[in-house]
Every structure is written in structure tokens, then in C-alpha cells.
Design a protein that fits this description.
Length: 257
Amino acid sequence: MTTWWGPSTWVDLAAITASTFNQQIRDNFNHLKNAAQVTYQSDYVMPPYRREVQILWEGATTTSMQINAQATDTGTVLIAGSGQVVLQVGNGASGSARIDQTTAASGALSNNWNTTHNPYFRQEFAINSATTSLHMFLGLRTSSGISEPTTENHFGLHLSGSTWHASCANGVTQTDTTASDALRPALSARHVVETSLHNSSNIYFMIDGSTWLTLATNVPSSSMLRFSLGLYSTGNGTTEAALVTLGATIMQESGGF
């Protein structure tokens, strides 16, 4: 029996009447079109993408993974077994550990992320500490630095002490917002953060598949965003080491080039 996908079920082709045929065609087209859309964790459906980068941390060294791994003072970047990498700083000493996106090679297309192309960022992570001396940023920004971004063009998740923030800025002014305790990531447990800038106007934040926040003011406007994963200590905490375990990093964008 030949079948056809209807609005909610498979049906016998002979049962399709002329009056319903056009609607069935539209439903099937939308079904196939939606099959090209991708969601990794949340209920936010990414528009069909034209570019995707996945970083799985499978290199033997940070150099072999073709990324900039930078650490200052007490910071350390460590390959931490198959599929993960660790950023480590000491709470009792000023320092940072971060992984920044490399610049495209000469002659290659730009590998920056453009805010007009609906950039999407997903990061698996776990952190073991939340003290007043500790800060973390996971997201896209226009520069790499030894502290989390403030007014530079950016959007992402950051931790300041024991408070989780969703942050963005347009190069002049920052929007920095906290949300319900119910969705704040617990310490020493694996989590997934997703954030997406949609139509250059709204930034959606998801934690473990649930919508966390939406930001719509001071949205970045830049074609020069790069991923940055950073852990920073101001050095006024205990001597306990702070560790962030990072799993897969996934980025996408859609729209014209």
C-alpha cells in the first residue's frame, strides 16, 4: 500500500481527495523543510543553517586542536580525557584560563560569527566552585581578554561569585540579567547552555533544555564575534582550585554570506 504523510498520520494514498490534496502537499513540504532544522537540546528550533562548527576536544594537546588556549598567572588549560577539557584557576591567586577562537588563515573565508546570521552557541559544562573571587564566561565576544566582557559586543552566560547572569552588549551599553533560582545550574553537575541571537533583535538563553531568559536590549551588532570560554579569579578567595569541565562546543549560523 502506498502511503503519504498527512498532518498527523500516514494515510492511504487512495484516501486523499482533490479537496485535501493541496493542503497535504503543503504539510508534506513543511515536514521535509523542518527536517533540515536542527535542535540539540532546547525547544528552540534553529533556522536551516549554512555553517556549523563542533569542537569535541579530542586532540592530544590544545595546540593540535587549532585553538588558542591561553592562561595567565595561576591558570591552566588541560586535556581532560576523551571529549572534554578543563579550565583551572586558584581562588586564592589572581589568574585566568581560557580558550579563544583562532583567526582564519590568510586567504580563507572569515570564521567570525555575524550577528545578522542568527548565531547559535551551545556549550556543555560543569563547574565545581562559586565564590566571590570567581568569574566565568561562555559565549561569543569580539575580543579575548583576561576578564569577562562588559560593554564590548557579546552575548553569553557568565558566573559572578554565586550568581548566574545572561549578558549582552552592543559596544556601548551592557544588559546583564539574572533569573529564577530554579534554573540556575547546580555545582559539580553537567549542564548545557544554549544561546541564540534571532533576527538581530532577541537573544534566547536555555539551560538544560528549558528557556531561562530572553534579552532584547543592547543586542550586539557585529560581524566579528568569536567564541570565548573563560574562567577568571580575582585572587581574594580560598586556596581551593576552581575547575570548569567543558564538553562539546557547537556553533551555527544561518542566512546569507
